[in-house]
Amino acid sequence: MAEADVTNRKPQDEVQALFEPQGVREEQTPRTDAEGHGERRPAAAPASPESAPPQAEAALAPIEEPVVSPHPYATKLREQRLAKEASGHARRDTLLYLDGVNKSFDGFKAINKLSLVVARGEMRAIIGPNGAGKTTMMDIITGKTRPDSGEVFFNGDVDLTHHDEAAIASMGIGRKFQKPTVFESHTVEDNIRLSLAGPRSVLEALFHRKDQAERDRIDAILETTRLTEKRKLLAASLSHGQKQWLEIGMLLAQDPELLLVDEPVAGMTDAETEETARLLREIARTRSVVVVEHDMSFVRELGVKVTCLHEGSVLAEGPLDQVSADPKVIEVYLGR
Ligand SMILES: Nc1ncnc2c1ncn2[C@@H]1O[C@H](COP(=O)(O)OP(=O)(O)O)[C@@H](O)[C@H]1O
Ligand SMILES: [Mg+2]
User: Which of 101, 102, 105 maximizes ligand 1 atoms within 8 Å of its Cβ, making it the mutation to test the pocket?
Assistant: First the structure.
């Protein structure tokens, strides 16, 4: 018995040397139960490595366990689980999280391993040449298009690939398409009122105007969208830019946590474009905004982090000055 101990010590010490750092660093070693409920279990001896001789004693005692437990497959599973947990933790703090997203149309890769993370309260500008996949990315986020593969999460752990457009809209993702779609034959304020209406019928929304809270919200939205003076006019009489603002107002009425806006300033006058940048900056104080836009002076006005897409992937990301100075970006986008 004593002899067996002596002969075993050398190889065990070597094995110990291999496994000990792992055991010391990671509390997960005792988490053999699949749920990982043992997480809080004190890491026993490794936590206090002060006195050398007792530790050497203690180190010998549990040796037999690590020698048998880390089967290569178990180790692999554990590493996979830890990686998944780590990405889950990183994801949990995000509002919008896309990773490794792919989408092909008839063999053409419109979205190619796309990864994008938007923080809560962040406004992000998305630029990129025509056909880069900007609109398709929004289609994927809003459930209009289902990706072939990849992760799309909202608010950390809501898997958007499992929900349809209506469900996603009701979760708090509002989307503004390129063309304004307002009710032309209604007044500006009724357009907002109808969007606030929610489950109530249109008639109720139009004829029961007694709710003060609702009136306050309409006033606030009209103010934000620079339409207070125009509230009694028919939407049909607004300029193109004002119709875009009205539609943004109609989205605000639904109080989205994330607002996606596709090319809002296309066709606007310079003055309207500048006002739109101010307007979106105001909106972004209380919610996240993702803006797709070609107009570089507008993107500059936004003053936010920029992501440049190309062929369905992120080509460059960072402050506009950095992105626009990137030779890859100049080649595919600015210098075209
Ligand atoms: N429904 C679809 N069917 C086929 N091809 C599509 C479809 N939607 C987008 N595409 C293609 O995917 C590419 C990306 O388009 P899109 O996302 O609209 O680009 P962007 O908005 O950046 O200009 C384009 O080549 C486009 O033709
Ligand atoms: Mg587009």
Answer: 105
